[in-house]
């Protein structure tokens, strides 16, 4: 088995109610997530990310389809499949009367972790709540509560950790703490990480592999590297020293623009032209190059390209 998670033809239709029509949130999603990866599930609000995650967590009942977690079919081996996965949900769902230590102990109890195997202190340390271990949850800041949710997802030492929009609306410090921990869990324990986000930059920075979901459908799954490679567009910016002629000969397919500060901006496609050819043309026009840099497309471009018109 080399996949941590396998999903086949997964569908979810929420029943309508109070004058609302039923909502088809997942329209037959197939997904395979390799063991040991940091996997990003990317899509705009309402795409169906939380629905998918909550099905994995057992919080939402699927309409149809198959879910195999660490090789265990969710319907056939519910206990084993549940034990293999820890989910940090998007919504804060903490009992205000528990302390962090209490919440972690109760969660460990729910997962049947024997007292001697519990790692409560270690987890408190990891999420930076050792000094708040015995404070009531209602007295914790929003950031601390989110950290506690991460801790709760880890009590049974799952092979797969799922984070639903872990950094939506959190401050930079918490974001960094989360990413440091997530990387550590992935590298040191080989934990497979699945996270959802609508921040493209974050997915680009964190994830080895990405699936893009839109309107309940999976529209693309590939390595981050390949997804970025899909984009053929490139930009070269040259800051000339001294002046530059109004126009000059350029390789075919290259469009030149001029920024207000005098920098020359060349848009081209990798298939059609090269940086070298443009530099040659610039030098041939008698321009002295002060500074030069290229701009690569980012996931945002890929996303717009893949979802436009849908
Ligand atoms: P995402 O996490 O990508 O923002 P969600 O999975 O939360 O998307 O939602 C997908 C769609 O399903 C949205 O249109 C949302 O309004 C709808 N939806 C989510 N939860 C429910 C629910 N409990 N009842 C009815 N519709 C829901
Ligand atoms: Mg969501």
Automatic annotation (TrEMBL):
Q: Which domain of life is it from?
A: Bacteria
- Which InterPro entries does the record cross-reference, listed alphabetically? AAA+_ATPase, ABC_transporter-like_ATP-bd, ABC_transporter-like_CS, ABC_transporter_ATP-binding, P-loop_NTPase
Annotated ABC transporter domain residues: 5-240
Q: Which keywords does this Swiss-Prot/TrEMBL entry list?
A: ATP-binding, Nucleotide-binding, Transport
Which is an annotated GO molecular function term of this record? ATP binding
- PROSITE patterns from the UniProt entry: ABC_TRANSPORTER_1 (PS00211), ABC_TRANSPORTER_2 (PS50893)
Q: Which PANTHER family did the record assign?
A: ABC TRANSPORTER ATP-BINDING PROTEIN, ABC-TYPE MULTIDRUG TRANSPORT SYSTEM, ATPASE COMPONENT
Q: Please state what the protein is called.
A: ABC-2 type transport system ATP-binding protein
């Amino acid at each position: 088995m080399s996949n941590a998670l396998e999903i086949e033809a997964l569908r979810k239709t929420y029943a309508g109610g109070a004058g609302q029509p039923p909502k088809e949130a997942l329209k037959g999603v197939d997904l395979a997530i390799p063991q040991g990866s940091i996997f990003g599930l990317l899509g705009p609000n309402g795409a169906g990310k939380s629905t998918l995650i909550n099905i994995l967590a057992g919080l939402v009942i699927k309409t149809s389809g198959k879910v195999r977690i660490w090789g265990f079919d969710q319907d056939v081996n519910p206990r084993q499949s549940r034990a293999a996965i820890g989910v940090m949900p998007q919504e804060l769902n903490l009992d205000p009367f528990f302390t962090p230590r209490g919440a972690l102990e109760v969660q460990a109890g729910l997962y049947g972790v024997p007292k001697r195997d519990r790692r409560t202190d270690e987890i408190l340390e990891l999420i930076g709540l050792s000094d708040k271990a015995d404070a009531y949850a209602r007295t914790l800041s929003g950031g601390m509560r989110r950290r506690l949710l991460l801790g709760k997802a880890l009590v049974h030492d799952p092979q797969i950790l799922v984070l639903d929009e872990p950094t939506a609306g959190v401050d930079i410090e918490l974001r960094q703490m989360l990413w440091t921990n997530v990387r550590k869990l992935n590298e040191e324990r080989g934990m497979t990480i699945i996270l959802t986000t609508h921040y493209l930059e974050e997915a680009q920075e964190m994830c080895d592999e990405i699936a893009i979901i839109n309107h309940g459908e999976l529209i693309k799954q590939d390595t981050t590297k390949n997804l970025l490679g899909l984009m053929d567009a490139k930009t070269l910016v040259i800051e000339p020293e001294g002046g530059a002629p109004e126009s000059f000969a350029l390789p075919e397919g290259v469009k030149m623009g001029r920024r207000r500060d005098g920098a020359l901006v060349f848009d081209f496609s990798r298939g059609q032209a090269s940086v070298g050819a443009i530099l040659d043309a610039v030098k041939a026009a008698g321009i002295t190059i002060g500074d030069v840099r290229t701009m690569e497309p980012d996931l945002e471009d890929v996303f717009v390209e893949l979802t436009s018109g849908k």
